[in-house]
Model the fold of this input.
Amino acid sequence: MDESNTPPSTRYTLTAMALHWILALALLGLFGMGLFMADLPISPLRLKLYNWHKWAGISVLTLSLFRLAWRLTHPAPALPSQMEQTMPAWQKLAHLGTHRALYALFFIVPLIGWAYSSAAGFPIVVFGVLPLPDFVSPDKALAELIKPWHEISAFTMMGLVLLHVAGAIKHQWINKDRLIQRMLPGKP
Done:
């Protein structure tokens, strides 16, 4: 069979799908944990949750590296031609901008968290056995400057996640163009 006549896939690869959904669940869990633990009084539970949050953040950072490498070597399938022709320019821009901003925040949020933890003098020891180097030198004043940026960037990422989900829902149930099927395993 002549592969040059094979139409390009309209779906993401199974690896891309797995990375998408694993990161989606991890990000939602991390955000929820962050909201919950932030207002807890100092206690063994709070310390445990902060450590888990840091481990999960480093895991997200690692998975994001894999996801970016996969995406760079396996480009996203093109939008269906009918959608490409009928989608308003502002929606195309929102689609592209949201995805690019999310990819950037996959790295920015955990790196800011790592910098904050380092500046606050609390090293990250992944799973309690793998100490990571400090991202910045301990400095309480710097920690106070960095701390709100971790929260701001996390809330920004969650806002973009909600925008992404709203777009997927719009395409699935309003436009009925089955766009979401591109990111789901099984039959298209």
In short: The CA atoms of residues 68 and 103 lie 8 Å apart. DSSP finds five helices and two strands in the chain. The longest helix spans residues 140-174. The domain at 15-183 is CATH 1.20.950.20 (Fumarate Reductase Cytochrome B subunit).
